[in-house]
Amino acid sequence: MFIDEADTCVIFDNFCKEEDMAAHASSEIIKYDVFLSFRGTDTRCGFLSHLRKELEDKHIKTYVDNMLREGTEISHSLLAAIEQSEIALIIFSQDYASSKWCLEELAKIMECRKQNGQIVIPIFHNVDPLWVRHQKESYHHALANHEVRFADRVQIWRDALKEAANLSGFDSQSSRFKDDADLVGQIVKRVLQRLNQSPQGDLQGLVGIHGPIEKLVSLCTESEDVIIGLWGMGGVGKTTLATAVFNRLCDGFEGFCFLKNVRERAEKYGIDHLKTELLSKLLKEEDASPFVTPGGITNFAKKRLGRTKVLVVLDDVNDSDQMEDLCGGHTRFGASSKIIATTRDKHVLLRADTDHIHQVKTLNSDDSLQLFSLNAFKQNCIIKAEQVELSKRVLNYCKGLPLAIKILGSFLKGKTQQEWESELAKLEKTPDEKIQSILRLSYNELDRNDRNIFLELACFFDRNTEEEEQIKSLLDHCGYTTTIGLTNLCNKALISISNDCVSMHDLIREMGREIVRGECLDDPGKRSRLWDSCDTYEVLKYNKGTQVIQSITLNMSEIDMIRLHPETFERMPELKLVRFHSSNSKNKLCAPEGITSLPKKLRYFHWDGFPSKSLPSSFGAERFVEIIMPNSGLQTLWEGEQNLVNLRKVDLDGSSSLMELPDLSKASNLREVSISGCKSLRQVPPSAVCSQKLKYLNVSNCESLESIAELPASVVYIIARNCRSLHTVSVSALDCVAKEPILQQQFEDITFNFTNCDKLRRNSKKSIMEHAYGRLKRPLAAAPTCATTPWLDKEDKHPFRYLSGKQHNHPKLNVLSGAAPEWFRYINPQRGAVTLDVAPGDSLLGFIFWIIFPAYYRSHEVQATSVSYKYWVRVMHGPSFSYDGHWFLGENIWLNDSYFWYDGQCCIDMIKVMEENTDTNNNNNSIQLVVSFQFFYTRLVLSYRYPIEEDVNKELEDWAVHPIYASDVRNLKDWSVHPIYASDVRNRQASIQPVGS
């Protein structure tokens, strides 16, 4: 996963040597507390000596250049010393800028501040800060002299001087200080304060956060945002990132404070304790308790804060009230102040009106490897191939979580290969307690509803990603409030939702499962959820189920055959979710005596290879939401009528013995029926598919199927491939007049596939075609009104621009046989060229295409066919623009199959050509477009079990095109058409070429 197999040992060994050398260097990088930068002739025997003595008296380890040994290269030693110091004190004096060495020191110091967060404190000794900031007086003259010999460095020095002079520091000429002794005392006090309060800790060896650091530093220095939130799961590095940003920025503020562990300390000591600490540091008061009142802070404290530019970090907040109590929102502090808050709960930041929320994400594979090597291997180690594999196992377990990588890397450091293997085997059974305790903090803050949803996601929905809508459907029917629950879990970074799918980090999943294991360590039958194959095997084999169990998921590929007791499910009355699945679809749960009943609370029932001929006679199906029983031994599901008001999906694919479908007339919410490969089924009765919400029907490879009763108008997806006995299909006509407002109109994801249905009758084809075309008519009928709709953006005024913006799914291709209809305007046009007249006030809405594939009579099995097209567009006598696209058909096309589809996207390209190549004053004349089309296809066939391509990019000769204008659809009821589909157009590229080139 992380390293190529070839030469892994060598690659990893070299990498670890380099990285461990870096780790070794970084572990010793802070050698000095303070680095002093000064001009010796100005200060060495006076001010500097007093400052140095005071620092040493306080046991502050200080570096000055007289520590250099004879013969040591001064520039290299100084640069290294700067890097190895936590604080840099820069003493700007009259002749500081006259020294090239001083300026090089300064440039290096400012570089370390930027890259490593080094603390920089400027001291202006007998010099006006404005001289330094704007390079005036002696600084002006010194830099002018340097221009002669060091012209390439002067601008760097100027920038460093300006940046340093803008930092918070000390001015010896200020009335605040009585004399140099007082000044020295205040400087040392500040140094001690910074050394004591700095949250820096061990920030060396940071991996994978330099990009985020720069982004946040830029955000704090260049934007007007006041409150910035760092959000992410526990252990992902929020505090580390906030610390690095704090160290980089704090010198630029008059007051600064890093409040650690706000959640924990607020619970332990109260919010007023934290408030006092915050005010002490921001106002530089040893005791700020007089400023804290029961309801907030005193008015005088508010006035002082309102005049102070501050930087505040609130680490690990779990309530927006904490942010309000401590920082008072956007207006409490002075201009240009910044508040950074870290939290596991995004909702806290949203409630606090956070200006910018940055999600801290897990490390990628390269950064994970680097961080692990820094923590797990000794300097100049030689890594064996076995350790490479073990390292990859560790990183696969950690899934990019920095906390886990550091903990396990440090724990494994110095251990033998056998100890590594033992520890990893232990981890696979029992997660690390330190990691788990940190992750569990977010779970502890959930309410009962959200905890149950989280545990179901961790234990039952155990795939990498689950569809959000399916989760909502099932868990809503289990009595949970799922929509808000998922939002809360997402806000707390316990799950993530992307592209309508829910996913969970593996370590968080393990945390959830450990919580369930803790319900009863010794008896899995007394736990609320079962997911481990060994535990589930024990419960089912020995009939140890209890009323505690709410969900079971079992991978039958991982167990031996089990003989189920007839009353297995009677012992689990609270069971709601069941999934018995197998990677090879082989059932391992036999029930020779049958199953007497199913739990009445069952919502989801998935059993691959269900062994019985029907479900038990005594069960209540009224709560069923999904029934999934592929490759079963069912002959019928049940006898008689059932109240199935909650049923949404029935999947009996591959149940070759199924003779009939049950009465589903009361399944008013049924959306999906899949019975592909049910070879004994002869008909789909009206009662099985009468739901007005039915969208999906798959009857492919039902070899004996003869008829499909009238399908509701709601259906948009019918797969009936290879139903060679099918002769009758009826689909309710769809009213083309849109009943919804224009905002709700969009093309639906339509697929009607009747490949190799040779016996399909003419009336059935007509019914299918009329229904499919009705799906297109609705949005097209609404399109012409777009131009007069005032609230649409200018870019959306063209009808298809609006429609394409709402088109989330491209309607797919239809498969039927026959020549192009006579009403097509262009059938096999000469040279593929057509001329379009776009009249004033009219709009081109797209094209209907029809292509016919040549017959395929070879012995190879066709797996799929890809189609590509190219077309050239030009305004009459203007330049030509070429475009191309491609789509993939997962169909086994053999005969002269015809494909219809609607493509409106290409007219966007044509609109662009018209807009860019016509006179804007041409309002009364038609615009003539010349369009040339070419279509190509490639077949993917199976030859001796290997896929090969045939007829690669072969041009199609039989095709037709029909342009659609807004004027054509103003009276759709008189528009007699055949079924159409929108193409799944991808990879559009445009270039200027001659026509036909």
From TrEMBL:
Q: Which SUPFAM superfamilies match?
A: L domain-like, P-loop containing nucleoside triphosphate hydrolases, Toll/Interleukin receptor TIR domain, Winged helix' DNA-binding domain
Question: Domain TIR, which positions?
Answer: 30-195
The yes or no answer to whether the keyword Membrane is present is no
Example of a GO biological process term? defense response
Record key words, sorted:
Leucine-rich repeat, NAD, Plant defense, Repeat
* Entries under InterPro entries matching the protein: Apaf_helical, Disease_R_plants, Leu-rich_rpt_3, LRR_dom_sf, NB-ARC, P-loop_NTPase, TIR_dom, Toll_tir_struct_dom_sf
Organism domain of life: Eukaryota
GO molecular function terms listed in the Swiss-Prot or TrEMBL record: ADP binding
Indicate what this protein is called per its UniProt record: TIR domain-containing protein
Q: What organism does this protein naturally occur in?
A: Arachis hypogaea (Peanut)
